[in-house]
Amino acid sequence: MAAHQSTEWRTVCEKFRLAQELSEIESRKDPENNPFRSKYKARDLLKEIHCSLVKIHIEEEEEGEDDNEADGGSMQIAEGEPGNECGKTCTGDSPAGLRAARLAVLQYYLGVNHIETEELSAGEQHLMNCMKLIDKCTTTRENVSLFIQARNQLGILWAGRDEIEKAQGFLEIAESMYLLYMKEDGQPPLDLQDYFVSEGEELSQQEKIRSRFEMAYTHTLYYLAQVYKNLEQYERAGQYCHSTLQRQLEYKQFVPLEWAINAATLSQYYITKTRYMEARHCLAAASVIATLAGEIPSEAAAKESDAECEKREELLQKRSEIARCWIKYCLNLMQDAKKLLEDNIGELDLDRQEELKRARQNEEEEKEKGRKSAILFGSSDTFDSICSLEEKISSMLPLDFEEARSIFLVGQSYVAQAKEYFAMDGHVTDHIEILQDHSALFKVLAFFEQDLERRCKMHKRRVDLLEPICKDLNAQYYLLICRQLQFELAESYYEMMDLKLAVADKQDQPDVHTIKKFNNLCSSSMKYYQMFLDSIRSPEGKFPEKLEDEVLRPALVAKFRVARLQSKLISNNLATQLENLNHSLESYSFIVQYCEENPEAKKAVETELELSNEMVSLLPLKINRIRSNMASCN
Amino acid sequence: MASSSVKVAVRVRPFNSRETNRGAKCVIQMQDKSTCIINPKQPKDAPKNFTFDYSYWSHSSEEDPSFASQGKVYQDIGEEMLLHAFEGYNVCIFAYGQTGAGKSYTMMGKQDPGQQGIIPQMCEDLFRQTAENTDPDLSFSVEVSYMEIYCERVRDLLNPKSRGSLRVREHPIMGPYVEDLSKMAVTNYSDIADLMDTGNKARTVAATNMNETSSRSHAVFTILFTQRRHDHMTSLDTEKVSKISLVDLAGSERADSSGARGMRLKEGANINKSLTTLGKVISALADMQGTKKRRSDFIPYRDSVLTWLLRENLGGNSRTAMIAALSPADINYEETLSTLRYADRAKQIKCNAVINEDPNARLVRELKEEVNRLKELLLSQGLSNLITASGEHPHVFTPVINTRLRRSQCTETEKIIAELNETWEEKLRKTDSIRQEREALLAEMGVSVKEDGGTVGVFSPKRTPHLVNLNEDPLMSECLIYYIKDGVTRVGQEDVDIRLSGQFIKELHCVFCSEVSENNEGESDHVTFLTFTVSHKCKRYVTKDFCAFE
C-alpha cells in the first residue's frame, strides 16, 4: 500500500508508539494529584491518529477506486458478495477490512483509555464503535484478537455496572469466537500492536503474538469464572478457574509459587465438593510446580543476606501451605468414607462395607477416566512428575483399614512437612491447627481399626499430641483454641475409657490394674471437661447465668458427659459410690435447671435434656439403694 | 469469659468548610441505634437502614440535644473497654472509615478542652485510676508500642533504628507479638502523647518519602498494662497483663490490590482484571463452599498481617469495639455506604474456631438402656416416692490468673525472658536512649523536636520561618516542622540541613537564605529567599510569613 511508505504514515506509527508508551509506562510515574496526566496525553495522540487515519483512508479509497477500475475492482467483490456470513460487507483480510480494523483498534484503545480514566460511558461508546467497525467484516486473522479483547473490556465494564448477564453475553461470544477461529484457522492472528507499523519495522515475533492472543483468551476465561461466581453458578466458576490455571501452565504464563498456591486452593474447593480425583490432581500439580520456584536457600545462605532469607521464608511457607492442603485432602477422604460406612452409633457397618466394595469395582473407575482427561494439567516437562505424585495416593474413598492406613500415612508425612515451617516457635495457631488435623487423622483411622486395644492406642496418640500444648497455652490469647483442645482431650479420654471398658467386658473378672486404669481415664476426661467449663467463668470465677450462643451446646454437653462419667467410676467403697452418684445427679440437675431458667436452650440439647430429666428422676433410686446397703452393712 | 463478639459504633461528622461551600447535602439520618443513608442520585429509592450498637449523631453542634460529643463516645465505649482492661482482658478498638471522615477526631481529637478523643481520654483515665490506688501490694506499669502495617510489612514507628519489616510471631504464653518491636516504658499521659506524636511523625516522614498516603496503611498503637500483686504468704508476684490495642484501619478507599489507581473498592459484581488476583477468586470460591458445608478445608490466606491482628482480638479472651467514621456529604455516598456495609459485616465477625464435638449417639444409647433398667427396677420395687438428692457441692475451680511462666522449650523464649528480667529502671533507661536516638535522627533530617514542645496537632512558631508538611490525613498534616535558621539552610538528600528523601527530591533540592532585617517599627523581621538549585526553571521565591511544602 502506497500510504505505508508515506511520511504521514510514519508519523502515525510514531504517534501510536508514543501513545502506548505514555499509557503503559509513563502513567505509572504520574503524581497523586494528577494521576491520569499521561493517560490524557495518550488520549490526545490517539485522537490525532484517528483524524490522520480517516484522511489517509479517504486518499487510499480514492486510489483504490482508481485501481479497481483498472483491474476489475476487488473491493466490489468484497462488498458485493456477502460471502458465507450474511450481513458482512467485507472480509476481514480485504483492504477495506483492514482499514476498518485499524480504525477499530484506535476505538479500542480510546475505549480502554476512557475506562482507565473513569469515564465509563465514553469508554463504552468507543468500544461499541470498535465492535461496529469490525462487525461489518468476517472474522479473520486480521481482527480476531481485537474482537476478543474488545469483548473482554465490555464484559468488565458491564460487570462493574452490576449488569452481570450483559457481561456474560459479551464474554461468552468472545469464548465461542476463539474456539471457532482455532478450529477453522488456528494461525497466530495479527496483534493489536502490529496495526501501526511502518515499512521496514519488524512485526512482533510469531511466538509473542501467539502468546498475547492466547493470553487474551485466558483472560476471557478468567472473567467468565468471575461472572459465573457472581451469578452463583459455582460449579462453572470452578471449572473456569481450572481452565484458567490449565492455560497459564500451557502457555507458560505463570509465576510458579503463585500458580501452585492457586492450584492448591482450588483443591480445597474440590474437596468440599467431594471431587477427590480433581482435588488430587490440583495438589499433585501444585507440589510439582512449586519446585519450579527454585531451591530453598540454606540456613547459612539466609543468614548471609536478607534477600536469601526472605526467599527461604517464602518457599518454606508456601510449601508448608501446600502440605496443609494435602493434609485436608487425606483427612476429608477418610472422613467421607467413614460417613458412608458407619452405623447409627458410629461403628463400622460390615454389611455396608461389603456392599460398597462390590459397587466400587464396577462403577467409579469407568466414570473417572472420562472426567480425568478434561482436567489434566501439564506441560510436557511436568506431566510425568505430576502423574507419579498422584500415584502415591488414592483418590477413592477408603473402604477398609489397609486403604485407610495408606492414606493416613501420606497425610502424616505431610503433617511432618507442614510442621517444618509452622513450628510452635513462632506460629502457635497454625502449628496447633496442624496438630489438630494430625489428631483427627488418628481419630478417623481408629474408626477403621477392628482391634480394640490398637484402637485405644490410636486415641492415646491423640492425647499425646495435644496434652502438652494444652497445658502450655495461655488462655488470655488463645482462649478459643484452649477450649477446642480441652474438649478434644476430654473426648479422647472418653473414647479410651469406652474402649477399655469394652476390652474389660470380654475378660471374666477385670483385675485391679484394669479398674485403676479405667478410673484414671474417667477422671482425665472429666478433668478436661471441667477445664472447659471453667474457661467460661468470669475473672471472679462466677459461672455465667446465661451462656453465649457459641458455648451453649458444648457447655451443656460437657456437663452431660461429666454426669455420665461420674456415675461410671468403679469403686468397692459404698461411700465413694454414693459420692460419685451424687455428683452425677448434680450435673444432670444442672442441665435440667439451666433449661428451665433459659427455655431457649432446650432446642440445642433436646436429647441430652430428655435423658437428664429421666436421670434426675431415676438416679435417687439408685442412690437410695446404696444408702440402704450402707445402713445394712453398718 | 465469653468469647468475644464485636461492638460496633458509627459516627457522622459535621460538614467541613469545603462541603459547606459546595452546598453539600447530608445523606445520613440517625435514630437511636439505627443509621440510614439516602442515595443522592436516586432520592426516591428507599433509604438503606443499618442497626449498630451505637449510632452517633455528631453532624450538628453541642446545642442539639441529639448531638454526640467526644465525652459521650468515650463514656459508651472507652470506659467499658478500660474496665475490661483492669479486669485483665485484652481490649481493642478499631477505627475505620474513609480519610477525612473523622476517624482521627474520634480517636485522637483535638487538644482543646472537651475535644479530646478516645485515646487521650482513656490514657488519662488509666493513669488517674492507677494513681488513686492505695494498696501497697498492688503496683502498675504501662508500656507502649506503635507500629504500622503497610503492604504486609510491619514497621516500628518508635524506634528509628529498626529497618525494614518486622516479623509477626506467636508465643504460646506471651501470645502474638511482633519480633523486635520496641516497647517504651511510660509513667504518665504526656509520655504517651509524646510517643504517639513522634510515631505519627515517623509515619508521616515515611509516607512523604515514599509518596504514599496514610490511608493505605494500618496503624496499631498498643498499651501494655500490667497489674502486679505481691502475695505476702508466698512472697510471689502475680501479674495480670492486658493489652489495649488501638487500631487505625486503612481507609476504605484504599486502592485495589491489583494496583489500579482510581479503582474503587466496591462490592458487587466487579470483575478483577488482572490474573494476579486469580487466587482471590479461587479462595473466595473455596471459602464459600467451605462455610456452607463444613469448616474442614485449608485456604492459604493472603492478607496475613491483618488476619493475624483479627485473630488476636477475636480468638483470645478479649473485648473488641469498632468505630466507623462516616462523612455526611452526598459526594461521598458510595464510600460511606461501603463503610456502613463494612461495619455491618463487622457485627457478624466471629472467630471460626468452633468446637466440634463427637456425636453422642453411643452415649445416648447407653443411657437409654440404663434408664430402662432403672425404670424396671423401680417397677419391681414398687417404689413411687423418691427422695430427691440433696447436698450442694461447691464448684471447684482454679482462678484464672495470668502468671508468667518460665519455660525454655522455645528458643525465642530466651529473648523474652531477658526482656522480662529487665528491671523497670532499665526499661525506662532504654526507653530514654531510644528516644534520644529518635530525636537525633529527626533533628538530623531537620525536623524540629524540642521546640514545638512535643504537642500533638497544629503548632506554628510565630516569628521564625519554618516549613510544615501537608497531608490529606489531618492527623499527619503539619506534624513535621522544619526550621529555617538565619543564613543558609540547605534542603536535599545528602550533606544538608534539612534532609528529605524521595524520588522527586534532588541531591541538593533547594536553598533557603534567611536574613533578619529591621522593619519600619524597628522590629526584626525575617526575609527568606528560596532558590531551587536543580530544577530546570530556576525560580526564586521571597517569602515573609511562612511557606508550606508538600
Automatic annotation (TrEMBL), chain A:
<feature type="region of interest" description="Disordered">
    <location>
        <begin position="60"/>
        <end position="90"/>
    </location>
</feature>
<dbReference type="GO" id="GO:1990535">
    <property type="term" value="P:neuron projection maintenance"/>
</dbReference>
<comment type="similarity">
    <text>Belongs to the KIF-binding protein family.</text>
</comment>
<dbReference type="GO" id="GO:0021952">
    <property type="term" value="P:central nervous system projection neuron axonogenesis"/>
</dbReference>
<protein>
    <recommendedName>
        <fullName>KIF-binding protein</fullName>
    </recommendedName>
</protein>
<dbReference type="GO" id="GO:0000226">
    <property type="term" value="P:microtubule cytoskeleton organization"/>
</dbReference>
<dbReference type="GO" id="GO:0005856">
    <property type="term" value="C:cytoskeleton"/>
</dbReference>
<keyword id="KW-0963">Cytoplasm</keyword>
<keyword id="KW-0206">Cytoskeleton</keyword>
<dbReference type="Pfam" id="PF12309">
    <property type="entry name" value="KBP_C"/>
</dbReference>
<dbReference type="InterPro" id="IPR022083">
    <property type="entry name" value="KBP"/>
</dbReference>
<feature type="compositionally biased region" description="Acidic residues">
    <location>
        <begin position="60"/>
        <end position="70"/>
    </location>
</feature>
From TrEMBL, chain B:
<keyword id="KW-0493">Microtubule</keyword>
<dbReference type="Pfam" id="PF16183">
    <property type="entry name" value="Kinesin_assoc"/>
</dbReference>
<dbReference type="GO" id="GO:0005524">
    <property type="term" value="F:ATP binding"/>
</dbReference>
<feature type="binding site">
    <location>
        <begin position="97"/>
        <end position="104"/>
    </location>
    <ligand>
        <name>ATP</name>
    </ligand>
</feature>
<keyword id="KW-0067">ATP-binding</keyword>
<dbReference type="InterPro" id="IPR032405">
    <property type="entry name" value="Kinesin_assoc"/>
</dbReference>
<dbReference type="InterPro" id="IPR008984">
    <property type="entry name" value="SMAD_FHA_dom_sf"/>
</dbReference>
<dbReference type="GO" id="GO:0008017">
    <property type="term" value="F:microtubule binding"/>
</dbReference>
<dbReference type="GO" id="GO:0005874">
    <property type="term" value="C:microtubule"/>
</dbReference>
<keyword id="KW-0505">Motor protein</keyword>
<dbReference type="GO" id="GO:0003777">
    <property type="term" value="F:microtubule motor activity"/>
</dbReference>
<dbReference type="GO" id="GO:0007018">
    <property type="term" value="P:microtubule-based movement"/>
</dbReference>
<keyword id="KW-0175">Coiled coil</keyword>
<dbReference type="InterPro" id="IPR001752">
    <property type="entry name" value="Kinesin_motor_dom"/>
</dbReference>
<keyword id="KW-0547">Nucleotide-binding</keyword>
<dbReference type="GO" id="GO:0048731">
    <property type="term" value="P:system development"/>
</dbReference>
<protein>
    <recommendedName>
        <fullName>Kinesin-like protein</fullName>
    </recommendedName>
</protein>
<dbReference type="Pfam" id="PF00225">
    <property type="entry name" value="Kinesin"/>
</dbReference>
<keyword id="KW-0206">Cytoskeleton</keyword>
<dbReference type="InterPro" id="IPR027417">
    <property type="entry name" value="P-loop_NTPase"/>
</dbReference>
<dbReference type="InterPro" id="IPR019821">
    <property type="entry name" value="Kinesin_motor_CS"/>
</dbReference>
<feature type="domain" description="Kinesin motor">
    <location>
        <begin position="5"/>
        <end position="349"/>
    </location>
</feature>
